[in-house]
Predict the 3D structure of the following.
Amino acid sequence: MQHQRPSTRAASSALQIFAAMSLWLCTEALAAPVSVIDDTGLRVTLPASARRVISLAPHATELLFAAGAGAKVIAATAYSDFPPAAEKLPRVGGYHALDLERIIALKPDLVVGWASGNPSPQLDRLRALGIPVYLSEPREFETIATNLERLGTLTGNPQAGHSAASTLRDGLASLRSRFAQRAPVKVFYQVWSDPLQTLNGKHMVSGVLSLCGGQNVFASLGPIAPTVTHEAVLATAPEAILTGREPATDKGSLEGWKRWPQLPAVRFQNLIYVSGDELNRPGPRILAGANEVCTALDQARARMAQAR
């Protein structure tokens, strides 16, 4: 019969105590109240880390999964299609028209909404029923990072949230150091072709262009997503025209600009398609979108140099 040595028994006992303490600490962390400030300046306090979370916008779904809370998301709105696991979630309407009855029936202990996208009366109704609502409204890179951290805190995943935020911050800083000093490129970013729509300097896409050494030719316009005329675009003489890929529609097509061969973007063959969801959704994939835009603008610079 084999016997454990005293030192071995002591080590085994210590490991058991450590494991028990770790489990206790995790349980206590889940049970302890958590509190953060959302993007509208309101404090959101939960009696314990959320275990049943509903997302009311595609970007909020991405933020939750990136912050390590994917397993706790029990439902989402339409178009929440990333990561792939999000496509399998039950739907609670679209972000412009929520299915309140279903949301209430699912008994969430946290709802993550979109400040400028979800109907305020419906959000107020959820609050009136005692359902905590965190409103997300990232307008800058740093706000995406802080959303990751706050949602990690609310869902009991602070380390995952901080890790995702650090990855985003570090990646964007690296791009800034590599590309911000490159020769500027005048860019028209096309959202739709009919009506012809762009984004102003306050939109995060414009921040990506700046990060990569691009200059948004309509940065100074008032509306965040203004409609412009073809004549106005021609007058700005953009050296590159970018748009998000629209696989199911031709509204993002750039082919129509070839009618004006004198346009620098056409002359330099700088009609560029980039990944729309990665850029237009204010979530962690903005880093991948920025990488793509920076690479595309560098290639545009090379074509411009060759043509000249």
In short: Residues 180-307 form a domain with the Rossmann fold fold (CATH 3.40.50.1980). Confidence is low (pLDDT under 50) at residues 24-29. The CA atoms of residues 145 and 165 lie 4 Å apart.
